[in-house]
Structures are given as C-alpha cells and as structure tokens.
Amino acid sequence: MAHLEVTDLSKRFGGTVALHPIELSVEQGEFITLLGPSGCGKSTFLRMLMGITVPTSGQIVLSGRRIERDAPERRNVSMVFQSYALFPHLTVLGNLRFGLRMKRVPRPEQQRRVEHAVRICNLGAYLDRMPKELSGGQQQRVALARAIVMQPDLLLFDEPLSNLDAKLRESLREELLDLHRRVGATSLYVTHDQDEAMAMSDRIVVINDGRVVETGTPAVLYHRPKTLFTARFLGHTSIVKADADGDDLLLPWGQVAKADNVTKGKVHLSIRPEDFCLHALPDGPGTVVGAQFLGASIRYRVEIGGQTVMASVTGREAMLPAGARVSLTPLAPLHLLENGGA
Description:
The strands form 4 sheets. This protein has a 6-stranded mixed beta sheet, with helices on both faces. A 5-stranded antiparallel beta sheet has the order 13-17-14-15-16, with no helix packed on it. Strands 2-1-4-5 form a 4-stranded antiparallel beta sheet, with helices on one face. By secondary structure, the protein is an alpha+beta fold. The chain has helices at about 40-50, 90-100, 105-120, 135-150, 165-185, 195-200, 220-225, 230-235, and strands spanning about 5-15, 15-25, 30-35, 55-60, 65, 75-80, 155-160, 185-190, 205-210, 210-215, 240-250, 255-270, 275-280, 285-295, 295-305, 305-315, 325-330, 335. A hairpin with a 5-residue loop joins strand 11 (about 240-250) and strand 12 (about 255-270). It is built from 8 helices and 18 strands.
C-alpha cells in the first residue's frame, strides 16, 4: 500500500463544489506538487489532509491508518504556511519547542529533535531572536524546522515561498528540496508557479476547477501533455492545428513534419518554442512580430500560415527586428494532444 492513499475525496461548501472526487497515491519519500491557478481547490485539498477542513466524502489513509475524521492533533501531519504562522511572542527556540511540548515529548527527545532541525536548517545563530528580528527567508527556515521537529508522516507546504523575492525564492527552493531528501519526508507542495513545480517535483498533479486534470513527472507533462490546459499552463507553447496521416503531419504553412503518435484527421499540436529551429531567411514563410530577450534565450513570436507561434534561439544570437522574414523547422516529432486537446 502507498504511504498516502486518497480515495474519492471531495469538498462542498453549500451548493458550491470546491473539490470534485480526487484519487491520489503517494509513496514514502516522494515530493508531489499540486499545481493549478488560484481558487482551483489545491489548498482545500491540503487543508483536508491536515484536518483543518472536514471532507464531504472520501477516505484518507496515511501509513495504513484512516485519518479523514481525526482531529488535526491526532494526525502525524505538519504544514508550512504561506504566512509562516510563527508565534510572535516566542523566540525561535520557543517556536521550535512549542509543538513538542504540546505533545508532551520528553525533554531529552525534544533536545535531540531541535538540535537536528537547527543543524539542517542552519538556524544556530538565531535561536534567541524573536520572529520580528528575522528576514523573510530566515522566518521561512524557522517554519520548516518547526514542522521537521514533529517528525511527521506527511509534510505539507501551502505556497511557502510566494511572499519572497525571486532570487531568495530560487535559493530557498534548492534548500527545501535538499532538506526534503535529507529528512526522507513524504511531501505535498501547493503552488501556482510552474517553474517551482518543474524544478522540485517527483510528480506534478495538475488541478483546475476542482478537478485533477492529469498527473505525471515534470518531463512527461511538459513534453507530452494530454490536455490543452496542461500544455498551456505548464510553460510556454503554441497550439497548432494540423492534418495527420499516420505519423505524417501537414502544418498550416504547408510544411510536412513528423508526429509523436499515429492518427488520421484534424489534430492539435503542442509545440514548445525550443521545438523549432529558427533562421533568418529573406524569402522565409514566417514574419517576426515580436521578441523577448530572456538572458539564456530569445523568444520570438512568428506569424506563419495565418497564425502566430513561438520559437526560441540562444540568447547569444543577435536579435532580429520585427518584420524580419524567417524559416521554422521542427527539431523533433511534434506532440499530439489527446482527444483534440479537450
């Protein structure tokens, strides 16, 4: 049996369905990200796992025990909140010890757990400080350490990095992932940041309008999404209609390409910017209508065959001006969305 097994879990608030029935299995030590737009139901799912919100229906089995009707304190689950939720009147050390005292963990065991969490979260210099004396990144590390000392069966993260600036967010993302591996925790992480999800996850659960759209590894969901929603939500893509005959494709601008699957008729393709090779060509079929310099790459918008697609080149190349004529060549078999991308 999986470490965490969720079956038909749903939530209604009056006549509003916040979360349609969800099925999810998580193995011991996995890092799973719940990815979706604001209001899609991902935080509601997390709160039901924590015990803050009572599910309308369904089961939650954690470490072989059903917990969906247990009070939060009876579940061995810890959550790291977006707001950190530190006790402002307690020092860092007081915050770390608080939950252990509530659970009446013996003093020697408290000391061992706190020392372990302080070491791996690099908090030794801050134990006597109050939360208001800490930076956002330091407060976030205290929140992580406070969760770790409880030695939870399940560690939950509700957009814990969203209040931080981009550079610090990227740094703490790496720290958090390293910490997850060293502790060996089973973690569920909520975010609407696609880069965060792809960089951190063993698997991503894509949620929209209270429903799981699809689940898979970051590489599979990025390169071979099943649905139009996932293709558009995860990174940048161009949705192109084409005619398929076997694995041969006729693109709208008359070019023939290969598909990554076999079918016949009208199809929708998800083509990432890096799936095209772009060259300046005086009589090329495409016209540059926009460009963004992104450092490592330049992403172009190209009008071709009556539609606009994206194509990227290395950032070391000279940027082409709007109006430049170009050619586009697919670099690999192009991805077919299932069921016409519905």
